[in-house]
């Protein structure tokens, strides 16, 4: 069992350590997604402030 684990670990480390490996999780956000996040965040903050004031 330990041999299987070591083999799998070495295989995964080889992939990660490869200089040509591109990690999609570390890719930059597209500008469209970033703008959408900023707009939605601002809208959420405004809605929370508006909702928190008594009528």
UniProtKB/TrEMBL annotation:
Q: What are the transmembrane regions?
A: 34-53
Which keywords label this protein?
Membrane, Transmembrane, Transmembrane helix
Superkingdom of source: Bacteria
What name does the UniProt record give this protein? Answer: DUF3040 domain-containing protein
Q: Which organism is it from?
A: Geodermatophilus maliterrae
């Amino acid at each position: 069992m330990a041999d299987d684990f070591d083999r799998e670990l070495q295989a995964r480390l080889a992939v990660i350590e490869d200089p040509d490996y591109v990690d999609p999780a570390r890719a930059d956000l597209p500008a469209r997604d970033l703008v959408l996040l900023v707009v939605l965040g601002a809208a959420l903050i405004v809605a929370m402030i508006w909702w928190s004031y008594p009528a």
